[in-house]
Specification:
Distance between the termini: 49 Å
CATH superfamily of the largest domain: Clavaminate synthase-like
Number of strands: 23
Keywords: Oxidoreductase
Largest sheet: 9 strands, mixed
Organism: Marchantia polymorpha subsp. ruderalis
Protein name: TauD/TfdA-like domain-containing protein
Strand content: 15-25%
Number of helices: 11
GO molecular function: oxidoreductase activity
Structural class: alpha+beta
Helix content: 25-40%
InterPro entries: AlphaKG_dependent_hydroxylases, TauD-like_sf, TauD/TfdA-like
Length: 436
């Protein structure tokens, strides 16, 4: 095995996932000494592929025992990976930029528990990876638990298959409320102007439209704005690992605990999450999801100088209540745009379930699936799906995955004629399990 500045070490709290890989994979100095930031940066640039190989299998890599002291050092480490920054626009957590690409992780009151979630699961494009850095380690509580997201899908398939099928077929709608003024004592704290970095209603509506996806706003006179996202898929296909992940904000939005403040009661009255057809989620099944997450999670004690890289497609994170000083910083990146969720616009009605402009994906009662291409299309534009025959049992979110996969295949082949078409993709029909 090649010599590396850091090596794999065991840590209390790790859990085997994905065929036996530890979550998280811990890398620490091979000779036990403290590694300087300059040494760490040089090593990252040299051995980045080795780190990413661990990330592929474990979903999270914790770098420990290096002399990363502050936000400036952390920014230098993040930049060493060479990933594109994912600006924090449209996220829900109250965050403040510290330096460069570095933000506070969350400014909610320390005692507040934040449920498991994938970072920015509700906008049309989420960060593919995220970094956390421990500048000040808490002595009591304040852990950042991790969760292998496929484990939730697997357990729901075993214990609540009907509920999982409903999530897959209907997707989810999120209703998120933001007031007109910043409130320092509030859980949400940020107004819609601060959160979206806009000055007026027209600017907000224009910004959401440019973000893509299925989002809209409702203005609440005398209160603020309700931003509605969806229907959005509740599951996502992890292409790198060939498995479904529980990519949504369902549990987080259903069980977020607001402090007992009048302003936050107002927020809670407007916030909501529901099935994509507008029907309410069954509370018992959402509780089952919460229980499964608690049983499958991994948690570890932060140490000062820790830097953790998390694959946002494979792994969810949360935050435990903290009862001592704690300072965790964050940075969001896009390392692989094909792994980020894509913009989708679809209704909850079958068989006409997509609208867009790129091409047509035809699915009949046979296994023939093809796309009629349009010249100069690029991945990320909208597309239209049309069923030639009635397909009453097809899953909307599965069709999303199939269309996205075929669309990427089309983009790679770069057809020069508008009449070009792709051969049937029978392999895709097997892994997405379309039910004709």
């Amino acid at each position: 095995m090649a010599d590396h500045l850091l090596q794999e070490v065991e840590m209390h709290g790790q859990k085997p996932v994905n065929g036996g890989a530890p979550l998280p994979q811990v890398l620490a100095p091979a000779d036990g000494r403290e590694v300087t930031v300059d040494e760490l940066v040089d090593w990252i640039k040299r051995d980045k592929s080795w780190i990413e190989e661990h990330l592929l299998h474990s979903g999270a890599v914790l770098i420990r025992g290096c002399d990363v002291k502050d936000a400036k050092d952390f920014n230098t480490v993040v930049e060493a990976f060479g990933y594109e920054e994912r600006l924090y626009n449209g996220g829900l957590a109250p965050r403040t930029q510290v330096i460069g690409r570095i933000y506070t992780a969350n400014e909610a009151p320390p005692h507040v528990y934040i449920p498991f979630h994938h970072e920015m699961a509700q906008p049309p494009t989420a960060p593919s990876k995220l970094f956390f850095f421990c500048e000040l380690a808490p002595t009591k509580g304040g852990e950042t638990p991790l969760l292998w997201s496929n484990s939730v899908v697997r357990r729901l398939q075993q214990e609540c298959p009907d509920f999982l099928q409903q999530l897959d077929e209907k997707g989810l709608i999120y209703q998120l409320y933001f007031g007109g003024e910043d409130l320092s004592e509030s859980y949400i704290q940020r107004s819609w102007k601060t959160l979206y970095k806009v000055n007026d209603r027209e600017e907000l509506e224009d910004k959401l439209a440019k973000m893509g996806g299925d989002s809209r706003v409702e203005w609440i006179e005398g209160h603020g704005v309700k931003t509605i996202y969806g229907p959005l898929p509740a599951l996502k296909w992890d292409e790198q690992r060939q498995q479904n992940v529980f990519f949504n904000y369902m549990v987080m939005k259903y069980f977020t605990e607001y402090p007992v403040l009048e302003c936050d009661k107002e927020v809670a009255a407007f916030d909501n999450v529901m099935f994509g057809d507008g029907s309410p989620l069954p509370r018992e099944q959402v509780l089952d999801c919460q229980r499964i997450m608690a049983e499958e999670m991994v948690e570890f004690k932060w140490e000062r100088g820790d830097v953790i890289l998390i694959d946002n497609v494979a792994v969810q994170h949360s935050k435990n209540p903290c009862f001592s000083p704690r300072r965790i910083l964050a940075s969001l990146v896009v390392s692989d745009r094909s792994q980020a969720p894509f913009a989708t616009k679809y209704s909850t009605y079958l068989p006409q379930c997509f609208q867009g402009s790129v091409g047509e994906l035809y699915g009949t009662t046979t296994e023939s699936v093809k796309m009629t291409s349009t010249p100069n299309d690029t991945v990320g534009k909208e597309f239209k799906v049309k069923f030639v025959d009635q397909v009453p049992k097809v899953s909307l979110c599965n069709v999303l995955r199939l269309a996205d996969m075929v669309f990427r295949q089309e983009a790679k082949s770069a057809p020069s004629s508008s009449n070009a078409s792709l051969p049937p993709v029978s392999g895709a029909l097997q892994w997405i399990d379309l039910q004709f």
